[in-house]
């Protein structure tokens, strides 16, 4: 039995992993897959990959590309979700801000440097014509920290996944000024280089198992039981789950293409997330 420690956010996108683990799909293939939750998101997982406390991660595309370029000893082995991530742009309910354009000099709550919440703030800034170099950040660690920072005025706005934050919009904690899609597929699977070298067959098996699990999510809107499972587990309204599922497409391919990675890098450069492209072989590892 090969032990692999995998990191991921405590969000609805990762239900396929939890279902596969709980139903012993990995153990049946002699993989002891240990899930580690990261409420702090991509920045926290990048740190964990760097220090070796996890072997692999289900992680935001833009965050891991930026961090590999910055020296993270990992590679992307697979696209996990093809569809973009929808980020809500939130202010406190009683905030003076009423439009995204008004946020030019506002303080931004981010989970940590290099996080998706920071990188998408840059994407939004470029879209709005703000000076990216003048953005002001407040570190809040996670979603709970973002709620606190907006509530007590430590920060002015906070970008986080649209559907995970919707309960806070519904209960009046946040006002959502707008939403912004990532201009690329949102989640990939990254693995530390030493694990790729030492346990390539285990990683291949892990990919095969999750791809087989994702087959059950091909027509999720036809599965009332699955919709109810999402709703109960993540405290989301059924109608919100249905809307999210209608926008979400999981990827069942075994590899990630150089063409896709280069296209994403071009966009990341345009949005000032990375300064220049690197050869695709620096970022990806073909496993099959």
Automatic annotation (TrEMBL):
InterPro entries hit by this protein: Ca3427-like_PBP2
Superkingdom per UniProt: Bacteria
Keywords: Signal
Subcellular location: Periplasm
SUPFAM superfamilies: Periplasmic binding protein-like II
Keyword Glycoprotein: no
A Pfam family assignment: PBP2_Ca3427_like
Lipid metabolism found in the keyword field: no
Domain Ca3427-like PBP: start-end pairs: 87-178
GO cellular component, one term: periplasmic space
Membership in a protein family: Belongs to the bacterial solute-binding protein SsuA/TauA family.
Name used for this protein in its record: ABC transporter substrate-binding protein
Taxonomic placement: Bacteria, Pseudomonadati, Bacteroidota, Flavobacteriia, Flavobacteriales
């Amino acid at each position: 039995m090969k032990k692999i420690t995998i990191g991921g956010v405590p969000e609805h996108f990762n239900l396929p992993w939890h279902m596969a683990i709980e139903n012993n799909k990995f153990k049946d293939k002699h993989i002891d897959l240990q899930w580690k939750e990261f409420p702090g998101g991509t920045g926290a997982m990048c740190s964990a990959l760097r220090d070796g406390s996890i072997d692999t991660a289900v992680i935001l595309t833009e965050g891991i590309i930026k961090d590999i370029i910055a020296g993270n000893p990992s590679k992307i082995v697979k696209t996990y979700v093809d569809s973009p991530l929808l980020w809500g742009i939130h202010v406190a309910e009683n905030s003076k801000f009423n439009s995204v354009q008004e946020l030019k000099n506002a303080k931004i709550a981010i989970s940590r440097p290099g996080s998706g919440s920071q990188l998408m703030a840059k994407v939004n800034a470029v879209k709005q014509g703000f000076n990216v170099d003048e953005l002001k950040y407040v570190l809040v660690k996670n979603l709970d920290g973002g709620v606190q920072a907006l509530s007590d005025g430590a920060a002015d706005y906070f970008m986080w996944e649209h559907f995970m934050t919707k309960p806070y919009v519904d209960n009046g904690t946040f006002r959502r000024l707008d939403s912004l899609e990532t201009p690329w597929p949102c989640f990939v699977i990254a693995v530390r280089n030493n694990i790729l070298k030492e346990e390539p067959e285990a990683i291949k098996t892990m990919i095969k198992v999750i791809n087989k699990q994702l087959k059950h999510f091909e027509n999720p809107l036809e599965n009332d039981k699955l919709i109810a499972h999402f709703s109960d587990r993540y405290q989301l309204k059924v109608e919100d789950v249905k809307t999210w599922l209608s926008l979400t497409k999981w990827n069942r391919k075994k590899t990630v293409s150089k063409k896709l990675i280069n296209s994403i890098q071009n966009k990341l450069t345009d949005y000032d997330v990375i300064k220049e492209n690197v050869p695709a072989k620096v970022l990806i590892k073909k496993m099959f």
